[in-house]
Amino acid sequence: MEVIKTDIDGVVIIEPRVFGDHRGYFFESFSERDFNSQVRQVRFVQDNESKSCYGVLRGLHFQKPPYAQSKLVRVVKGRVLDVAVDIRKGSPTFGKHVAVELSEDNHRQFFIPRGFAHGFAVLSDEAVFQYKCDNFYAPQSEGAIAWDDPDLGIDWNIPAEKAVLSDKDMHHPRLKDADWLFDYNDKLY
Question: Which residues are catalytic?
Fold first, then answer.
């Protein structure tokens, strides 16, 4: 696998080695040994999958400690724009984001460390999205910020009027108004 660093330390794009021939393709989608040596020491404990249609926008979500999560995400069908936002107060990249297109064709994966909000928008007619988490889902620990916060400047690659949101995702605070954020100096791992 190739690990591609981004403008935010710890947030990386992973490109697997894909072997293709007339039968189709094969690639190793995860190796704990390689991930731990090339990205960071993480023990994933939960896998999730969602299916969504064009325009569905999920995010920007996170879990507060002690249930903070790292995520390793990928698309097995369709295309999405995946986004990680640094929400660690005091971080040199606080409020900055990294966006990457993940698709069934590019097989890319995106690693979002603890201390970041995460979301994605579906760019294809349909998308099947998978993610590995290093902590279990804890509803009492949910946090989120507004997907359309103008201070974040995220171009979701879909018109805002076409965004399909859950009721909860329509009412999250802007980053500057959030009542809870991570602290850059806290040990998250």
Answer: 61, 131
User: Strands 109-112 and 126-133, how do they pair?
Assistant: unpaired
Q: Which residue is listed with tokens 């969602």?
A: 50
* Structural domain that includes position 153: 45-183
Distance in angstroms (rounded) separating the CA atoms of residues 128 and 67: 25
Q: How far apart are CA 109 and CA 82, in angstroms?
A: 10
Query: Is the whole model's pTM more than 0.85, yes or no?
Result: yes
pLDDT in tens, the chain (189 residues): 999 999 999 999 999 999 999 999 999 999 999 999 999 999 999 999 999 999 999 999 999 999 999 999 999 999 999 999 999 999 999 999 999 999 999 999 999 999 999 999 999 999 999 999 999 999 999 999 999 999 999 999 999 999 999 999 999 999 999 999 999 999 999
Residue 61 lies in a domain: yes
Instruction: Pick the closest to residue 126 from 22, 176, 55 (CA basis).
Output: 55
Return d(Cα 140, Cα 153) in angstroms, integer: 29
* CATH, residue 170: 2.60.120.10
Contacts of 77 (CB under 8 A, 6+ apart): 104, 126, 127, 128
